[in-house]
């Protein structure tokens, strides 16, 4: 089996795993009395959301003071300076991009350990340097050390499955949070949200609902782009075997 055929086979296996993880996630979301099983993933996505704010602040030369979470799944990142548009947008879009990036990376099963280790390193660093309350420390250490331990698990199949399930949960939670944001922006404008921050920054010229809908549109575009890449990987055709001897002959003639 050549490299292209191997990549295609891995992409098919990863896509099958993605379908299984999606089915399990949907079942957990809509079956009664099992919501507690997805609760940890909600806290995880909130932590990723706040990490997105922090990274955007640093990338635009701002200062990050601390990150705070509560057990209801809400969070806040205290920053100074930086580009407010990018910082406020990086929460919801960052969570979606993280989940979509995981999906693309996990098309190769061997990348699952790297994804787990890298995620663990970022979460532990964010917790140690920016943790502003007990909830951040408990959640950050739990997920950081958990992913670090996962990267050391011997079974690559298990690591691949868990990280695929985590990716699906991240995308679903990010989209669910955006749905909630659109509702709050339209019907509860007094609630403090990232969209309200951007509306205030533009003197209400661009309402919070517009920001929320815009972020939702970008998130769906990110997800669509991810699925297109997945589809292309599944449809990629291997090079015809009959052409390989001709290529080898041409190479020999060129070197003679």
Description:
- It is a single chain.
- The chain is mainly α.
- It has one domain.
- It is built from 9 helices and 2 strands.
- A two-stranded antiparallel sheet has the order 1-2.
- The chain is globular and about 55 Å long.
- The two termini are 29 Å apart.
Give a topology summary.
Blueprint: H1 3-30, H2 39-59, E1 63-69, E2 75-80, H3 84-105, H4 111-130, H5 134-151, H6 156-187, H7 194-201, H8 208-235, H9 243-255
Antiparallel strand pairs: 1-2
- Percentage of residues in helical conformation: over 70%
Tell me the number of structural domains.
1
The low-confidence parts are 241-256
Fraction of residues in β-strands? 5-15%
Count of distinct strands: 2
Spatial order of the strands in the main sheet? 1-2
The main β sheet shows up as:
2 strands, antiparallel
Form type: globular
Number of helices: 9
> Gap between N and C termini, in Å?
29 Å
Order of helices and strands: HHEEHHHHHHH
- Average pLDDT figure: 88
Structural Rg: 21 Å
Structural class: mainly alpha
How is this structure best summarized?
By secondary structure, the protein is mostly helical. It has one domain.
Q: Which terms summarize this structure?
A:
disordered C terminus, 2 strands, two-stranded antiparallel ribbon, mainly alpha, globular
